[in-house]
Specification:
Elements lengths: L11 H9 L3 H7 L11 H5 L5 H9 L9 H20 L22 E3 H4 L6 H13 L4 H14 L4 H11 L5 H12 L11 H8 L12 H4 L13 E3 L17 H4 L6 E5 L15 E6 L1 H6 L4 H11 L5 E5 L2 H6 L5 E5 L10 E3 L14 H12 L4
Parallel strand pairs: 3-4, 3-6, 4-5, 6-7
Antiparallel strand pairs: 1-2
Helix pairs in contact: 5-17, 8-10, 9-10
């Protein structure tokens, strides 16, 4: 299997050009194949450089009827649906929402990773290649993510929360809601059934010819109860992450003494999911990308992700990068007004909030995605 070599530029002009080049018709026909015509926009949407609404408007300008590209617009809506669930459920999304994980080993304590995954030795060539690409490039096709999550949880019996944290660590588009809730969808903790894949399906969508792997069985055999972990998946390693980020030469303010020169009447705060260089562009004020150490103790990310996000941040004119928690930052500027963009990770910030650009203002995350889509589509499927 050959994974397409995709670059993720960080300048806004190139990012917008990528939106303009989306082919929503080709996407609908090929999106499930690893070489398919996917947009590669998710890292920019996740980081708030662009929005799903930006993408919606551009692709709709290319078609006569929105219904011609319903599948593409539905995929955008999935991301909005996950975000709505996060707003509704809060930190509960990091636990099993509806059901306990059904297929889970009882002989493991602590956070672990299957050795076969950690050492790229699953024997499933598409996954071993995909995991290597994820670790080095920060990207994995959505189908491969689902395959891996199913192998980790429903076949191997490992905790979905460890898998979500490990995958998030490596993803350029590591959105907490999309990632954690997708893992829950796969293992049945927030869905009505468990997702399985077998080798025949993997070979079809990845162009491989593997035989005799631990997934080379029927769906019925893979879902046998009680859980019978294949020998290849029995061994595990501790799941560990570096405690502090490597900023690799980027100028980052960490000391309280350095903060005193940054203040102004208005301080415009950017965060991990809000790096839009267009935001309040005409507003006068000090622009700060505030990175909270406490957040990254909970949700660490790789050097590959750090480098990407810091490069995006530096596209914002006159931005300063500060590494400290909000309360410490706030205490240095008692007379300033703080302004940011709404998001769950900054719900504790004492700041004025501008809204995110949603595709649907009326739909809520009550019920299934298709209940959400039924209501949201009344706004999404409208050309301006």
């Amino acid at each position: 299997m050959k994974i397409p070599s995709i670059q993720f530029p960080t300048d806004f002009a190139s990012i917008w050009q990528r939106i303009e080049s989306v082919d929503p018709y080709k996407y609908a026909k090929t999106r499930n194949f690893v070489w398919g015509s996917v947009s590669y926009l998710s890292p920019y949407i996740s980081r708030g450089v662009i929005s799903v609404e930006d993408v919606r408007k551009v692709v709709l300008s290319k078609v006569d009827s929105p219904w011609e590209i319903e599948k593409f617009l539905q995929e955008l809506a999935w991301r909005e649906y996950w975000q709505r669930i996060w707003l509704d459920k809060g930190d509960a999304i990091f636990t099993s929402l509806r059901n306990e994980q059904e297929r889970i080993r009882k002989d493991i304590s602590g956070s672990v990773i299957p050795s076969a995954v950690n050492q790229l030795e699953t024997g499933i060539s598409a996954l071993d290649i995909g995991i290597n690409h994820l670790q080095n490039e920060g990207y994995m096709h959505n189908h491969l993510r689902m395959y891996l999550a199913s192998l980790w949880t429903n076949v191997g019996g490992y905790d979905w929360k460890d898998g979500a944290k490990w995958m998030h660590y490596h993803l350029l588009d590591g959105d907490l809601a999309s990632n954690w809730l997708s893992w829950q969808w796969v293992c049945g903790t927030n869905s009505s059934k468990l997702y399985y894949c077998n080798q025949e399906n993997i070979n079809k969508y990845c162009g491989t010819k593997d035989e005799g792997t631990i997934l080379d069985s029927s769906y019925e055999e893979l879902s046998m109860s009680p859980l019978k972990t294949p020998n290849l998946m029995k061994d595990f390693d501790l799941l560990e992450f570096p405690e502090t980020p490597n900023f690799r030469g980027v100028e980052v303010i960490r000391n309280r003494e350095e903060l005193t020169d940054l203040g102004s009447e208005n301080i415009l705060l950017y965060h991990w999911y809000h790096l839009d260089p267009r935001w309040m562009a005409e507003e006068v004020g000090t622009r700060i990308f505030l990175i909270e150490p406490s957040y990254f103790k909970k949700f660490p990310v790789s050097d590959v992700v750090w480098n990407f996000v810091l490069a995006l941040a530096q596209e914002i004119p006159n931005i300063r990068i500060v590494y400290c928690d909000f309360q410490e930052f706030k205490s240095c500027f008692p007379a300033s007004i703080f302004i940011t963009r709404e998001h769950p990770i900054v719900s504790h910030w004492e700041a004025q909030r501008s809204p995110r650009p949603w595709m649907s203002l009326q739909a809520t995350a009550a019920g299934s995605f298709f209940n959400f889509w039924k209501k949201a589509s009344r706004e999404i499927m409208v050309k301006e």
